[in-house]
Design a protein that fits this description.
With 436 residues, the chain is α+β, with helices and mostly antiparallel strands. The chain has a domain of 133 residues. It is built from four helices and 29 strands. The strands form seven sheets. It has a five-stranded mixed beta sheet with strand order 1-26-25-24-23, with no helix packed on it. Strands 2-29-28-27 form a four-stranded antiparallel beta sheet, with no helix packed on it. Helix 3 runs antiparallel to helix 4. The longest helix has 29 residues.
């Protein structure tokens, strides 16, 4: 049998027998051994910046701290926190870490519209103004993706998409659809000239929104409907300067090279999980419960910040922040409500409109390692462990790695080093492991 006929028959088999695609996957292997665990506990491990001397800067988003561990992860230096005991204040708004030149790191401070430059010793040495102040919230990471700098020194990040506002409010007693974007842009901005250019476009979860004007009072009611199982794309800046765009609908990766060439990767073989009505109902119930807890906790945070509640509510506020951070990985629709003084309850897509297969990826699932590869946290779990697909710079599946339960990869270091946040109840620790 010649090779062409063999390829044709293999393609037909993949269509008629989806399980055949799984046979072409590389075998699942466990992540390499854990080399070190932080002596000090954290509230969360949101972002990690590995340094050439073996130390690592960690953004503890829930604890509102930025700290630096030495190479053994035993000694810790506080760079910024929210206590009165230090003048290194973490602002009242959540920030983010961005790897900068050499071993320097930027801490994004949305409150002051600036970026603090942290040197290799954990010292804040100077401040840089935000290149586009109205987009500074796009630089804090999380579901927006991880910002970074390309070989030309341009800041690469997900741009703010401004939706078109209706020319007028609906008439009393009527409802109008709000135009909500279902795609976004990855842009590059020169810090000196402020020149911006678009590097790629990608799909984001679709949210339905309506505005209703009450007939009797003329008051406005905003209604949003989000899916707990959204089809979405994701993106990451690879270490070689290429841009990886994960296409979630058919699960493949497009690579945009530094010279602008687009390499369309093949479909990534994946064991898609079919969802029964009972599965969908359970997902809706758990997401709704998580959203209700988040809403209550966010309101408690806002009341505590405004001085309306007693000190005992601080614990409730901290719990809410932790739930909000965890929701990104477990319930993407739970944090979709607008951030207003009293967040409205999140409405969810009805059961009959949910997809029949669980999407392979969520927003914020893609991270680049130090060796030119893309690691994608998939929706597939095996005995509590999470499958990460490792993709090369041609968009091809290289290997599949199982990350132990209770752990999420937060960053990478040179030499095949992986940094993870290991969550045990309300306590998190930083772990350094080998990829193999």
């Amino acid at each position: 049998m010649n090779s062409s006929l063999r390829l044709v028959l293999a393609s037909i088999a993949g269509v008629l027998f989806p399980g055949a695609a799984a046979a072409q996957q590389p075998p699942l292997r466990p992540l390499g051994p854990v080399l070190a665990v932080s002596a000090e506990s954290l509230a969360s491990v949101a972002q990690v910046r590995a340094l050439s001397h073996g130390g690592v800067i960690v953004h503890d988003l829930t604890g509102r701290r930025v700290v630096m561990f030495d190479s053994t992860l035993k000694r810790v230096t506080v760079i910024a926190d929210s206590t009165d005991a230090t003048n290194r204040a973490y602002s009242s708004r959540l920030g983010g870490l961005i790897a900068y030149r050499g071993d320097s790191t930027l801490f994004v401070d949305p409150q002051s519209l600036s970026m603090l430059v942290i040197d290799q010793n954990g010292k804040v040495v100077r401040t840089i103004a935000a290149p586009l102040p109205n987009e500074i919230n796009q630089l804090i990471g999380g579901q927006n993706g991880t910002p970074g700098f390309d070989a030309q020194g341009r800041l690469v990040y997900r741009a703010l998409i401004r939706t078109r506002v209706p020319p007028s409010l609906p008439a009393p007693g009527e409802t109008a659809m709000l135009p909500i974007a279902d795609s976004s842009l990855v842009v590059r901005v020169d810090l000196k000239t402020r020149k911006v250019d678009t590097a790629a476009t990608f799909r984001i979860p679709k949210i339905k929104a309506t505005v209703t004007r009450e007939e009797s009072t003329g008051g406005i009611q905003l209604r949003t409907i989000a899916s707990p199982l959204p089809w979405t794309d994701d993106w990451a800046l690879l270490s070689d300067g290429s841009l990886a765009i994960v296409r979630g609908q058919d699960y493949r990766v497009d690579i945009v090279t530094p010279d602008g060439k687009v390499i369309s990767g093949p479909k990534i073989p994946f064991e898609w999980q079919r969802l029964s009505d009972d599965d969908k109902r359970a997902i809706l119930d758990s997401t709704r419960a998580a959203a209700d807890k988040l809403r209550a906790a966010i309101i408690a945070q806002q009341r505590q910040a405004a001085g309306l509640d007693a000190k005992s509510n601080i614990d409730t506020a901290k719990t809410g922040a932790r739930q909000l951070a965890q929701a990104e990985a477990t319930h993407p629709a739970a944090s979709s409500a607008p951030s207003v003084a009293a967040p409205p309850p999140v409405e969810l897509t009805p059961l009959n409109e949910l997809p029949d297969y669980r999407p392979a990826v969520r927003q914020g699932a893609a991270r680049a390692d130090a060796d030119g590869n893309l690691w994608i946290r998939t929706s597939r779990a095996v005995n509590g462990s999470t499958e990460y697909d490792v993709i090369n710079n041609r968009g091809e599946l290289k290997e599949r790695v199982l990350v132990p339960p209770g752990r999420v990869i937060a960053g990478f270091g040179p030499g095949g080093v992986v940094y993870m946040g290991a969550l045990d109840g309300d306590v998190a620790r930083l772990e350094r492991a080998l990829a193999r």
